[in-house]
Amino acid sequence: MAARGPYAKGVAKRAEILETALDVIARNGYSGATVREIADAVGLSQNGLLHYFGSKDALFTEILRRRDEVDDLAYGLRTGDDEAQLTEAMSALVTHNASVPGLVQLYARLSNEASEPGHPSHEYFRERYRSIRSLGTEVFARLQAEGRVRDDLDPAELGMLLFALLDGMQTQWMYDPESVDMAGAIDRFIALMAPAHR
Fold it and tell me: Is residue 141 part of a domain?
């Protein structure tokens, strides 16, 4: 049974805020997307907007969480069945990220700030990194079992390295977007893992 009344309206408004914030940040960049601008776009005061999240950091954390959900659905990193699909999904995701630099900036800035255990976004990033390392381990273990990845490589380490490469490439790309080919670097990294006889 669907929720009704004020609770349902609150859930709907929160979802509207997150979708609007994704657009505003993608369009204007992290530094150019103020709480006031997001509030104006959804017809709320700044205090009214923050009422739904508690703080600016909590708002930005939920924006990133929503971005993860949207990207998971759009690019299927968790559903790819083989190496080709993984490579295509990763390439598509980093190509998409290049089209939304504001969200990449938000992720980079907040992930650095949240490294301190007391930061409101710390737990989100800690769980996110655990989740993507686990995903990488599962994918590379499967590919290894199918003979698509060398036997002498540790799937857990490969998963960690893949997402570390992705984060590092995004940082370099923010400084020099014309010279850094994020998708190409991911493709080449995955190709390095193939057995020599392939």
Answer: yes
